[in-house]
Amino acid sequence: MAVFWILVTLMTAAALAFVLVPLLRSRPAVAPSATDANLEVLRAQRREIDADVASGVLPSQERDAALAELVQRADQDLAGREAPAVRGGKPWPVAIAAGVLVPLVAFGTYLAVGTPRAALNRSTVSRVGMNSGDPNSVSKARAARPTSAGPLR
Fold first, then answer.
1. What is the largest CA-CA distance in the chain?
2. Closest Cα to residue 140, out of 128, 126, 123?
3. 9 lies in which domain range?
4. Are residues 40 and 70 in the same domain?
5. What is the DSSP secondary-structure string of 37-87?
6. What is the pLDDT of residues 85-97, one digit of tens each?
C-alpha cells in the first residue's frame, strides 16, 4: 500500500510540474504600449515622407506641409494618453491556488469515484492463499471454498 501512495504522490508532483512550471516561467517583454505603437507609426510615416522627397515623388516645398500635418496628428494621437502601468512579476496567488487545488481535486475525485479500499483487499487475498506465487493458486483457492450450489457436473 505504501508503494501505491508513493506512486500517487509522484504522479501528483508531475501533474503539478506540468501546471506550475509554465505558469511561473519568465515571460517575454510585454507588447509595446499604444503610445509606443503610435510613435513608431509616425516615425515610419516621416521616413516615408523623406523617401518620397528623395525619390522626387513629393516636391520639397510640400515636405514642410506634410511634416507639419504629421506633427499635428501626433499631437492629437498622443495628447492625454498615459501608458497604463504594466504590472510585472509572477502570478504567485494563481500558482499557490493551483498547487493546492490540483492535489485536492485529484484526491477528492479518487475518493469519490475510485476504489480506495482496493489496496486493502490484498490482505484478504493473501489470507485466502491466492497470492502464493503459484499460477494455479487462484483456481485452488476457488476450489477450496464451499459453494452453496454444490459441485458442478
1. 115
2. 128
3. 1-23+91-97+119-129
4. yes
5. HHHHHHHHHHHHHHHHHHHTSS-HHHHHHHHHHHHHHHHHHHTT--PPPPP
6. 555 667 888 888 8
